[in-house]
Amino acid sequence: MISNFIAQLQFELQPKRLMPTLTAGSVSGILAIVLSVSFASLIFSGELAPHIGLGLGMLLISAVLLNVIVAPLSSLPLTVATPQDSVAAILALMTASIMSRLGSSSQTLPTVVAAILATTFLMGVFFFLLGRFRLGRWVRFIPYPVVGGFLAGKGWLLAVGAIGVMTSATPNLNQLLTLVQPATLLRWLPGVIYAIIIFIATRRFKHAFLMPALLLAGITVFYVVLFASGVSIDQARAQGWLIGSLPSGVLWSPFPIGDVSLVNWSVVAEQYASLLAVLVVSVISLLLNATSLEIAARADVDLDQELVAAGVGNLIAGLAGGMAGFHGLNLSTLGYRVGARSKLAGIVAAIVCAAALIFGAAILTFIPKMIVGGMLFYLGFGFLFEWTVDARAKLPRGDYLLVLMILFVVATVGFIQGVTLGVIIAAILFVVNYSRINVVRNTLTGISYRSNVDRSPRKQQLLAQRGEQIYILKLQGFLFFGTVNVLLDRVRERLKDRSRLLPRFLVLDFRLVDGVDSSAVLSFVKLRQIAEENRLYMIFTNVQPTIRAQLKLADYVDNPDGTTHFFETLDQGVEWCEKRTLTMLDLAATIPTPLDVRLGELLPSDIPIPKLMNYLEKLEVSAGDYIIRQGASSDEFYIVESGEITILLERDGGSPLRIRTMGAGTVVGEAGFYTNSPRTTSVVAEQATSLYRLTKSSLDKMHADDPQLAVALHQFVIRLLSERLGNMNRTVQALLE
To answer: Is the pLDDT of residue 603 over 80?
Structure first.
């Protein structure tokens, strides 16, 4: 194991592999520091601005720990993890809410810090459990417009927060006029212009060092203008153009034990909505980032493993006093663009952040607020542009309007309210749209769909005449009140159609049904009432046990003497309907017709039937006796005179599968007989059966003695096969309609 580790380390330290890794890690670390400054300024704003150093330390310690833990545990070849803008935007709302409740009391700062740490720790637990129980894939079921609305709303919060960072005030829609006053305008407009320049440049040009170059250029231009204006650095700091003073030395410090007693835990508990929003928003963002990185890395990603990695990272970061975070899409993608493919890039980024955490406080005070705010506004503007402009050509009109509605509610009411309303409306739209899906996949009758039972020509003719009385509906999808109402309408329309025979049997096949909602039970009660009013037999086939239990709530119980029956397969259900139809016609138990009489009805009158019978050998078999065994040679075929036989496909390790049941006047075994191939199925007598056997030697003798008789026999077999094929074609055609 040690030798493998040394070999892997030597591979990673090769110059061709190490240089892109160092470049990606260093640049990512620097950008993570700048983003941490931006997020700290966003969260610790207003009256908490003097504590920005504490917030920056919490962000940087998270950047260090997340990269040290997530990078090695990730399934991706390169991952850079940092505190995220989506989390920072909601934490800023949480902080503002706590400040509005506690004001400037001694409890405010400890309560804010406790809420942030609780968020980090809970996110770690949430991520870890989702990954541990492999539930990451379920997050993909969140409606896409809601995700878009959430991202647009996040962009709005970041853009508003950016202006707040640059003006040292919290802007809102009621104070728009104050933002255009010259003194205030000068504070935020250059940062917005800088953000738009970054946005345009990054959309038009794709280069790994473009963002660092724009960052350096922005700082350089700021100081050139500052010195040209004759303003010193101290004056600029005093006037609020720079971040301001930060604590000297190490920025990070653990949460003081003495401050725990000052935490107002009831106020922390009041932030449950924001905590829930952070969890939901973060898991969506993490999985979206991970799948995007999967494309950038051209490697398969294990979403559950990414959740576990981020969960462990946040648990440790929370215990160490850090803020929540996870995989950074932009910073990780930067590494892939410079050719890095090593997990060491995340470790290098952690080292750079650790250096800033320990030694970089003094240097960070020289970063202009305009640059920090510009970076935040760039992130927010990017989300807004993507989901209000780009999305117009990508989304259907309804989805696009839902995105705009969520954004509007976020901007005017609140983030949680906007996302919640979006989820509710998306759910309603889903129900409405799903209700429009035709729950009936196929509509069949006893004419177009026959059971796998071959009967005498007379019975087949009668079943064809009465076939419309068997009304078959093959259902599909998930059944709830909306889709079942479509089923009710279909049944009502059929019962009103007087141009056809009225149905006596309503067959509902559930083979393609995924589930039944409890709301559908009332609709099935109504369906049962319709069936009772019209004296319909209700036949249910392929019903899963869980669905059958739900149907029982609507009084659908299998009753041999009643009108409700359950069968394992559609074939068995239709067979019961056919037998019931023949029973009502008093043909279910007719006196068996001798084969010579039956052949006399089917063959031309000039064919001597007694002579034909001389070539056939009569057999009497009991119920359960094998007539043909699967795999045997095909030296004969049989004509059933009376009784009933079943064709079975015998499977290794499984019960035999019924292929077809055949009655009097049918032929079995002819396919293998004519193709001279081994038997592919077995034939077993269902009851005491009388049949006739024709062997190959007898057929050869018939050809030699009486060719005309042999031709007539072949015509008889062909006619039976044609009828069987015609029934099959009608069924296939009905299923394709």
So the answer is: no
